[in-house]
Each structure stands twice: as structure tokens, then as C-alpha cells.
From TrEMBL:
Protein's name according to its UniProt entry: Probable malate:quinone oxidoreductase
Single GO molecular function: L-malate dehydrogenase (quinone) activity
Originating gene: mqo
InterPro entries attached to this UniProt entry: FAD/NAD-bd_sf (IPR036188), MQO (IPR006231)
Documented EC number(s): 1.1.5.4
Amino acid sequence: MTPDGVVPDSANPDVVLVGGGIMSATLAALLGVVAPQWSVAVFESAADVAGESSGPWNNAGTGHSALCELNYTPAGTDGAVDPAKAVVINEQFQVSRQFWSHLVRGGMSDGSPKTFITPVPHVSFVTGEDGRAYMRNRYEALARQPLFAGLEHAEGQAELAEWVPLMMAGRDPRQVVAGTRSVAGTDVNFGALTRLMLEDAGRRGVPVHTEQRVHDLRRETDGRWRVTVRDTRTGEKRVLRARFVFVGAGGGALPLLQRAGIPEIKGFGGFPVSGKFLRTRSPELVSRHQAKVYGQAAVGAPPMSVPHLDLRLIDGDHSLLFGPYAGFSPKFLKAGSLVDLPRSVRPGNIGSMLGVARTEMALTRYLVRELLQSRDARHTTLSAFVPEADAADWDMITAGQRVQVIKRDPATGRGVLQFGTELVVGGEGSIAGLLGASPGASTAVSAMLTLLERCFPEQIPAWTPALQEAIPSYGRSLSADEALLAEVRAETMQTLELNG
């Protein structure tokens, strides 16, 4: 390193991955498949990887496949349910499973996939006559889709008591209930998966630098990116030059992309929401709820508020999580700064952010109600799922920060709040970043494949054989090819040990 902190050109990596979460880990693994000759380096500001949204206690670990998440199957004014979004998300999760299977066959996790993925039934649950009618329509719409083969439907408390006994005990026998169940669901420890993928990358020569914060990004005249990295312990800075930069820093991605000065980030903003969950480790309660159960969001509440009661299997610890309960912090990361939100406001996005402030009054009201909720009110919400819940069995934990994407609607010019993920590509494909939240981690492989296609279109034809070896359905549709789906499903279930 020179006196001014510049790393000699011979030591510069081809690719810099910012953030030690599931997205960077996935991209590092994919680059190991298609371009093993490229040098790659990962920089994480915390003392360990997977400490933010990828951390197992910072997300529900559902393995989003739309088997139970009702917000992915909206009903129209006529009551008909549109399965299109659910089909897309389920297929994306199947892509992830194929790639994880490929890595396991290659030695990741020492052949023990249960360290990061475990079979857990996924259940949808509704109450009331309207809910029952919706569930019937949803079941009929999904049962015709090959990706949802085996989905079960039930009406009545006696039937649901066989699936979720904890939730039916003590319930008013007159209450109308309905649900669906898929035994193909999973619980995923994305923290463990992230660490395994980065350890695997490390064995291929990919260094993972912790306590190293990427402080600034500037594009130089030759097209390379000048990456300024600061040691969070000593304050020492060094400067790297890379041909490609991926910003997978969760809530920290927006500020870095703004510093990079790419025009594509203009108009984007972020709205941080912190999540809280009630958790119990009671062996008796856990034994009576061996599922992940999703309900419906309250009328007028945002999709992020969908209540769910999840079995979690984390590092040998079995517990239940119920929530989410929303909180508010201006931080963009759990370990972020209280000035993250105000610092993100720029001339290029202030219109979008003010527009959302005017149009998303439902979100504002929801957050205010959540912030003012008492302990008794939170217990009442839990009791709607678990009628006999004892507050003494549950403690409140804080989950990860979620930064919802604010973007400018090209049709109206107004700001809109987006409950999903957004891939931003700039610098003629030399830099990319991922913004947003759910379904996030579960669809990381599809997101990073899209990145490869958008940033390296010239290389894709040469890379396709390797990608198809790792992901047999790459370039094809599982929902349109039942024979391929059956083949892929059988292989991944065997490799990932998901047969029960």
C-alpha cells in the first residue's frame, strides 16, 4: 500500500462486494461458477458476517415460496384470486433451492444441509365468512398450478386442530376459520447459509474482510471504481480500484449508491421500519405448533404487517416467533446511525419522499398505532392467533431494520412506496445495488442471476452451460414444464434432505 493508502494495481480485485449478507454471498458463489478466474473481495463493516437482515433472528426464515403468504395472492373486486405473483415467487425459491443443492453437492456444509434448511409445513389461516370465501378462491387458483401441487384445504376448527393444535385450543367454537397447508414448506437459517457460502468462497481464495466499511465510491476516467475502505477499529483508510462493484449492504445500500453519483439512483429514497417479535422457547408450546402460519393484514395496514406465527429452528434451538410489531428508527441498519434517514434526503429524491408522505397515510397511521401499543394490546394481537397464550411465556425481541424502497412513478412523476426489492444498475453495468426487503433472501439467487444478465450480457452465452449445470431450470420455466419440475423437486429434496 502506498503512503496515501492506495493499493498497488496488482493487488486490486476485479470485483468488490459490499456487505457480508446473503446477497453478496450468493453473488460470490455464482461468480465462482461462471468466472472462477476473477478475483473477488468482500467487505463487511461489522465484526462478523450475516449480522443484519440475513441474521436468523432478524427475519422469519420462511423461505418465501408463496405457499402461505396471502399478500402474494390478492383478490380482485369480484373475489377471484390472481396466482401470478405467487407462481413467480415460488419459482424463484425453487431456483434458490437448486443452487443450494449444487453447493451442497460440491461440499458446502460438509454435506449437512440441515444446518441451514429444514422441512416445516406452511399454513395459511383466516377467520370470518369473508376470509373463508377468500381462502376457497385462493386454494382453487393455486391448486391448478404445478408448483403448488399437494396444497391442502381445510374449513372448520376440527380439521385445523390437526394442523395447528396450539392455535385452535380455547378458540370460540362459533368462530369461522379456514386454511391451507403445504408440507413442502421450509425453515431457512439465512445467517448459517450466508456464513457457509462465504466460507466456501474463502476456500476458493475470496477474502472476506470484516470491520472494514466501504466509505466512498467514485468512478475514474478509465471506467474502474475507486473504492475507499475504512478500518472501523483503527480508522485507517485504503483505496482499491475494481472493475465491478456490487452494493449488497441492506439498508446501507442507498447511501452508498448515492455517493457513487450514478444517475440511476436519482428519485430513489428509503423509509426505515424496525420489526419486533414475541418469542417463546417453551418446549410445551413449541411441540404444539410445528408450522409456519400466516394470516391476513388488517384492513388498511401495509403488507409488512401480515401477522404470522413461525416455528424457528436456529442452531439447534426450537422456538416460536409471533409478529411483526412495527417500530420506527431513522437508522437504515440495526448498527446504523440516527442520521441515516435525514442524510439520505437529496435534491434528486426529495420529491419522491414528500409524495409518499402525502399518499401513504395508511402506513403512517399504522406506524403510529404500533408505536403507541401497550403490552396488553400486543398480547391481544397474539391471542387472536393463540387464544390461550400466557404473556409470561413470551418475550419481545427486536428484529432487523427494513428500508422500504421509495421510487418515482414514471407515469405520474409522484413518489410511491414499494414493498419488494429493486435492483439498480449504473455505470454501463459496472456497478449494481439491491434495495428493499421481502421476499429478499429467499429469492437471492434469482436476484443475482438478474444482476449477471443485466451487468454482463456479453458473457451470458458463454456462462449459460455452467449456470444450467448448477441450476437445471436456468433459462426455462418450471411452472410450464412439469417433467422438469418433478426432476428438480426430487433432486433438491434428496440433496437438501427435505423428505421429512
